[in-house]
Write the structure tokens for this entry.
Amino acid sequence: MQSPNQPPNQAPDQALDRLFGALADPSRRMIIERLSRRPSSVSELAAPLAMSLPAVMQHLQVLEASGLVRSEKVGRVRTCRVEAAALATVEQWIFARRATWERRLDRLGALLDGLDDLDGSGGPGGPGARDPQDGPEAVSRSRPTRRKP
């Protein structure tokens, strides 16, 4: 299913590439941040940026091509607004990855807890326990290494 702001015949991966490409630039992220508060004219968006108006226009073209921003010209004023649907697409992609990694880390934690039970640590302070202040390198010292038979 295509996103409502995704151009026809554009694959979802290409749409995500455009979204992340547009968000990769700090100036464009600043523009999105300002537009998330309220719609603004190009002049208002350009005022705090240390770049020319044509440079700001180029950034806005990239944001519009990605679907993150929509602009409307009334008379001589072009007003831009953020497209929440495009930001929701990015958020959904990130959330899916986060959920996957949380499940994997939960399984790893359960596995490591099982190894603690096998080595007879008996919980905090028992044999094989480690001080959290020791840092990540202590994990390899406190966990038994398994050798394949």
